[in-house]
Specification:
The structure is a single chain. The chain is of the alpha+beta class and 155 residues long. It has six helices and five strands. The protein has a five-stranded mixed β-sheet, with helices on one face.
Length: 155
């Protein structure tokens, strides 16, 4: 048997076990520890009288849920047409090379996640990106490197 996460077990113990509470409980677990641990799926399924496959299906269906610990910093590159037409593809290629990962993955050091975002409302100042909650416009590969260095220092 795999080790369970105490916070998740406490959330499950406090739930009613009614199947209509599955999503709120999954949200509570992710809010508490940052993701839904795969080793917790069996206990979740048991709590809600569901199969592990049913719980896994819910977790993987909703893009909000993660099954691994999140990176400490999230880099989002705008993939909307305006940003693509103003160098967004080159920016994404540079980000993938610099971070050592593709979209929907973590950097080689695990510090950053690289995610797409579809329109940050900065079309006139494309290409744009975010690092966590900070929005940046007119991002060139050189500016990306500077912003990334600044984000690393802020660790």
């Amino acid at each position: 048997m795999q080790q369970r996460i105490p916070q998740a077990s406490a959330i499950l113990a406090a739930s009613s076990g009614a199947q209509d509470q599955l999503l709120p409980v999954l949200h509570a677990i992710q809010d508490a520890i940052g993701y839904i641990p795969p080793e917790q799926v069996e206990e979740i399924a048991s709590t809600f009288n569901l199969s592990r496959a049913e719980v896994h299906g819910v977790i993987t269906f909703y893009h909000y849920f993660r099954t691994e610990a999140p990176a400490r910093k999230v880099v989002q590159i705008c993939r909307a047409e305006a940003c693509q037409s103003m160098g967004g593809d080159a920016l994404l290629a540079h980000a993938e090379h610099t971070l050592g990962c593709k979209l929907h993955a973590h950097s080689t050091d695990g510090e950053f996640a690289l995610e797409p975002v579809y329109c940050l409302g900065q079309c006139a100042t494309a290409p744009s990106m975010m690092i966590n909650e900070a929005l940046y416009a007119r991002v060139t590969p050189a500016r990306f490197d500077a912003l990334l260095a600044k984000a690393k220092e802020a660790a």
